[in-house]
Amino acid sequence: MIPVAVPDLSGNEERYVVEAIKGTWISSSGTFLDRFEKEFATACQTDHCLAVANGTVALHLALLTLDVQPGDEVLVPALTYIATANAVRYCGAIPIFVDVDPGAWCIDPEKLAEAITPRTKGIIAVHLYGHPADMDAINQIASAHDLWVVEDAAEAHMGEYKGRKVGSLSDIASFSFFGNKVFTSGEGGALTFNDDALLERAKMLRSQGNDPHQRYVHRVVGYNYRMTNLTAAVACAQIERADTILARRREIFETYDRNLTGIPGIKFRPVMPWARLTPWLYCLTIDPEQYGATRDQLADYLRENGVDNRPFFPSMHQQPPYLELAATQNVHLPQSEHLSATGLNLPTFTGLSDTQIETICNLIADRARAAN
């Protein structure tokens, strides 16, 4: 079985972890933590980075830092991984589902204004499947209504919007380093920002509300959301090979494009002219009438022939924990529903060979020929 994702740990990951173990710095302090925070902030063109335990924690901590309160409304894209809405609910706030646009597949700026109410406090802009959201338009709307903006950049490491790095385009950005991400530390996450006051508040909340100047004095109810030095050791080894990892993954995307061109019913992921896509998971959508099979039928066929794959995320308003909430919002989200029903992710990892990609694409072409 060709898997969807395999982490690339071919650099200094083992060496750095062993170094951390031998130095006995294995918890939430150490040189690799300091190094990671400095290097990732630089990579994202921000003043600050704060390392945390995972991507969901990062998003929750961002909202806590911005003082999201029970009953507040937060605008979120309907098409995203469920952690985005879950983090809002952790705060007792209410996620308001907004459709995505057909170009970027991210939260639609044209739909934002009509979703704003007096209870709206902010917007989470998810850079879905590695494509940046239209941040200028989103920030302009936020500014006009005195709202904050958080980037959920879990899937978009080193992506670019109009030449600016993802993670530097809002009040706070959150990242994930889960095992299937472009850069991984197993688990692990980060926040990036430029505001010193937000950094200090996030630091305090991350570490049980501890006063940074007085040990065991806790100013607020906080959380243990810290990254370990062991995790940071792996992350440092990943970031130092960022260019190499990204280059190979871009080659993989290009090879998929070449081999899939011309197959009826196969639709490529659009990329806006102002965006530089992060090559996370290779995305396509299936037109069942043209292709001769549905997305799910193709997915089953690929798995039967040794190729793992993933459907797109279900639209949030169709997820069981949010059905009742979505019903009260009376949402109409045709673009999110369409992509959820037709989108497929193919294997994407640096060790994927061109021969394997050709095998995958030949299977996709064979399934189309059999139907037509």
The CATH topology assignment of the largest domain is Aspartate Aminotransferase, domain 2
Structural class: alpha/beta
Write the H/E string, N to C: HHEHEHEHEHEEEEEHHHEEEHHEHHEH
Percent of residues in beta strands: 15-25%
Rounded to the nearest angstrom, the radius of gyration is: 21 Å
The CATH architecture of the largest domain can be named as 3-Layer(aba) Sandwich
End-to-end separation: 27 Å
Specify the number of helices.
14
Q: What's the shape?
A: globular
Report helical residue fraction: 25-40%
Number of structural units classed as domains: 2
Query: What is the assigned CATH homologous superfamily of the largest domain?
Result: Type I PLP-dependent aspartate aminotransferase-like (Major domain)
Description of the structure:
With 372 residues, the chain is α/β, with parallel strands linked by helices. It has two domains: 13-239, 3-Layer(aba) Sandwich (Aspartate Aminotransferase, domain 2), CATH 3.40.640.10; 242-371, Aspartate Aminotransferase, domain 1 (Alpha-Beta Complex). The chain is built from 14 helices and 14 strands. The strands form three sheets. A seven-stranded mixed sheet has the order 1-9-8-5-4-2-3, sandwiched between helices. It has a four-stranded antiparallel sheet with strand order 10-12-14-13. Strands 7-6-11 form a three-stranded antiparallel sheet, with no helix packed on it. Strand 2, helix 4 (83-90) and strand 3 form a beta-alpha-beta unit. The longest helix has 19 residues, at 242-260. The radius of gyration is 21 Å and the shape is globular. The chain starts with 12 loop residues before the first helix and ends with a helix. The mean pLDDT is 97.
